[in-house]
Automatic annotation (TrEMBL):
Superkingdom to which the source organism belongs: Bacteria
Ranges of the DNA-binding region feature: 33-52
Entry keyword annotation includes Mitochondrion: no
HTH tetR-type domain location: 10-70
Coiled coil: none
The protein's name: TetR family transcriptional regulator
Family annotation (Pfam families): TetR_C_41, TetR_N
GO molecular function annotation: DNA-binding transcription factor activity; transcription cis-regulatory region binding
InterPro entries: Homeodomain-like_sf, HTH-type_TetR-like_transc_reg, HTH_TetR, Rv0078-like_C
UniProt key word Nucleotide-binding: no
Length: 197
């Protein structure tokens, strides 16, 4: 019995994302050929255009997938912490550390902003921001964070982690820059506390 059309379309979409993810990680966005991508996926250019509009749309889908995986990994690391404040710090540091991952570095932190623009406007970043905002609201209510605007504090925490990761990825020596970025992130975040540690 043939698969339903919707299921086939979703499989094709996933094949294209997987092929693009591999090509973008190995060659970079600009050097990745659409013909090679579609051949790797066993599909036509028409399938790429139908699902993503163009190569840029495909990159956006790949970035969304990887960025969502990064957020899930960071949250999993945060849940191992003893309290919500330490979880926020651990998640931010984990996000920054992911800048050492070659795939993350190339696709999300270098090619993504160059092609898709400001990462703070990406849907995946916005969902992370909302999670951080809810944590910040709880910490303000508990008196752990100063009485600040929760969205402002969440945006600055998220922005600091994102910009630190961008800095690490773009640096000439990412492993050397990483500890400096994480230390500065933690120090900046500490300023939000009612009683700095």
């Amino acid at each position: 019995m043939p698969k339903p059309r919707k299921e086939t379309m979703e499989e094709n979409r996933m094949k294209l994302i997987a092929a693009a993810r591999k090509a973008f990680a190995e060659k970079g966005y600009s050097a990745a050929s659409m013909d090679d991508l579609t051949a790797e996926a066993g599909l036509t250019r028409g399938a790429l255009y139908h699902n993503f509009g163009d190569k840029r749309g495909l990159l956006a889908a790949v970035v969304e997938q990887i960025d969502s995986e990064m957020a899930a990994r960071a949250q999993a690391i945060g849940t191992r912490e003893g309290d919500e404040w330490q979880a926020i710090l651990a998640e931010g540091a984990a996000y920054i550390e992911m800048a050492l991952d070659a795939e993350v570095q190339r696709i999300v932190l270098l090619d993504g902003p160059a092609v898709l623009g400001d990462p703070s406007k990406w849907p995946s970043q916005n969902s992370c921001l909302q999670v951080t905002k809810r944590s910040v609201e709880r910490l303000i209510a508990q008196g752990i964070i100063k009485q600040l605007d929760a969205e402002a504090a969440a945006r600055l925490l998220s922005g600091a982690a994102l910009n630190a990761a961008l800095w690490v990825a773009a640096s000439e020596n990412p492993p050397n820059v990483l500890p400096k970025a994480v230390e500065a992130f933690r120090s900046l975040a500490d300023g939000l506390l009612s009683k700095p540690s």
